[in-house]
TrEMBL record:
Name of the protein in its database record: Adenosylmethionine-8-amino-7-oxononanoate aminotransferase
GO cellular component: cytoplasm
Nucleotide-binding is among the record's keywords: no
Enzyme nomenclature, EC number: 2.6.1.62
Family: Belongs to the class-III pyridoxal-phosphate-dependent aminotransferase family. BioA subfamily.
Main localization category: cytoplasm
Catalytic activity: (8S)-8-amino-7-oxononanoate + S-adenosyl-L-methionine = S-adenosyl-4-methylsulfanyl-2-oxobutanoate + (7R,8S)-7,8-diammoniononanoate
Positions of transmembrane segments: none
Site (Participates in the substrate recognition with KAPA and in a stacking interaction with the adenine ring of SAM): 19
Length: 450
């Protein structure tokens, strides 16, 4: 107990937390996580929480997983780190081969980094340089990216430039480069009557931009199927495939950011698999290591890779890389993570638990403050509103109280504004999925009485 208080004081003294208004954070004693086991995490007081956001959408097989622990320990006996600059290493080679074998057929080369933001930054730079490498004069203008409103691709300046969340990004507007932003195909917040009408209209807008400006556009950066960090907006079926078709027609690279949706999150190994989409570039991160260590990867097609080949060092080379690129410990655990997906038949498991999560959450639509329930796989959002007709968001203080009460009842979840997110550990059992929704439902009913 004494130690917990002491740690809490030191936390407030020394740590500046990410995406956090520290003035508010400091108003109450922070939860300090000490250990994890399976679907649960435990704080320094011994309180147990069901991990309903998979420790920020990363955990695949549960905390303190024996096989993942073993993979790291085994690698430790060999070496922890050497550089990929000018030499290679065993786990990074094995992992690259594995990643190429499980991702869409179009992708054959792997460029490692260590955060999702970096993987997007790399994708943008590769796409930009690709056009210059193949014909500097002809493609001199291909410097912009098509993006979706409400997109989130990370926090480095390139990733912010292709993002579309005003509240996060407007402060940096003088530092970022200009892009072409398109309406997001998400029905709930739109004025469209139905999905088909919305999809036709947005695809028409995209085509008309491409028709006039494809000579200025290097690539289309998209979160396939679900725009996560903005509030889990689900795109209609067929939208991604149509975007792919338009990109091919107008000679624009398709860059799929699967940092959040990759590795089983939407019920297929990759969101692109739902519509058999073959991206030119794909960004991976988060669950790539099963939630153990920071790793990201940008995969490209051979066409892109070959455009960077030359016999001269400074000609066409991709001058980008990070100190820990392809680190052995990280790659070892990522490789074991993928093997566990196969060994534990995690994708079929997710399909079953997804149906339970969906049904249980959709039952809540009868509550007067539940405006929308949307998602795929194990990535769902419950939008809380003051009024179902006007869709006016529920007061943020009430939303935060619900999240905080859920914690008190043993469930860790997070809200994105007025959307409560359910993005649990991928291996969570059916029983635990039901328990997660039950805790939320009880808190919801107690907080917002009918
Ligand atoms: C779609 C998407 N891309 C990129 C990122 C950035 O990843 P990271 O936070 O690891 O830099 C995120 C993070 O939430 C994301 O959801």
């Amino acid at each position: 107990m004494k130690n917990s208080k002491n740690l809490a004081e030191k936390d407030l003294s020394y740590i500046w937390h990410p995406f956090t208004q520290m003035g508010i954070y400091a108003q109450q004693e922070p939860i300090i996580i000490e250990k994890g086991k399976g679907s649960y995490i435990f704080d320094t007081y011994g309180n147990r929480y069901l991990d309903g956001y998979a420790s920020l959408w990363v955990n695949a097989h549960g905390h303190n997983n024996k096989q993942l622990n073993k993979a790291i320990k085994k690698q430790l006996k060999y070496i922890s780190h050497s550089t990929l600059l000018g030499s290679s290493n065993v786990p990074s080679i094995k992992l690259a081969e594995k990643l190429v074998s499980i991702t869409p057929d179009s992708l054959k080369k792997v460029f490692y980094s260590d955060t999702g933001s970096a993987s997007v930054e790399i994708a943008i730079k590769i796409a930009y340089q690709y056009w210059k490498n193949i014909d500097k004069e002809k493609y001199a203008q291909k410097n912009k990216f098509l993006t979706l409103h409400n997109g989130y691709h990370g926090d480095t300046l390139g990733a912010v430039s292709v993002g579309g969340i005003d509240s996060f990004h407007k402060i940096f507007k003088d530092l970022i480069f200009e892009n072409i932003q398109i309406e997001s195909p998400s029905l709930y917040k739109s004025d469209y009557d139905n999905e088909q009408e919305m999809m036709d209209s947005i695809l028409q807008q995209i085509e008309s931009i491409l028709l006039q400006r494809s000579n200025e556009i290097a690539g289309f950066v998209i979160e396939p199927l679900i725009q996560g960090a903005t509030g889990l907006f689900v795109h209609p079926h067929g939208f991604l495939k149509s975007v792919e078709t338009l990109c091919r027609k107008y000679n624009v690279l398709l860059i799929c950011d699967e940092v959040a949706v990759g590795f089983g999150r939407t019920g297929e190994m990759f969101a692109c698999n739902h519509e058999n989409v073959q991206p030119d570039i794909m960004c991976l991160g988060k669950a790539i290591t099963g939630g153990y260590l920071p790793l990201a990867a940008t995969l490209t097609s051979p066409k892109i890779y070959e455009a960077f080949l030359s016999n001269q060092h400074a000609d066409k080379t991709f001058f980008h890389g990070h100190t820990y690129t392809g680190n052995q410990l990280v790659c070892s655990v990522a490789l074991e993570n993928i093997k566990l997906f196969e060994r534990n038949k995690l994708i079929p498991h997710i399909k079953k638990t997804s149906a339970i999560l969906k049904n249980n959450l959709e039952r809540l639509l009868t509550h007067k403050n539940v405006g929308d329930v949307r998602g795929r796989g194990l990535m769902f959002g419950v939008e809380l509103v003051k009024d179902k007709v006007t869709k006016q968001p529920l007061d943020i203080k009430e939303v935060e109280k619900i999240v905080s009460d859920c914690k008190n009842e043993g469930l860790m979840i997070r809200n994105l504004e007025n959307v409560i997110t359910f993005v649990p550990i991928l291996s969570m059992s059916k029983k635990e999925i039901r328990k997660m929704v039950r805790i939320f439902e009880n808190v919801l009913i107690n907080t917002l009485t009918e």
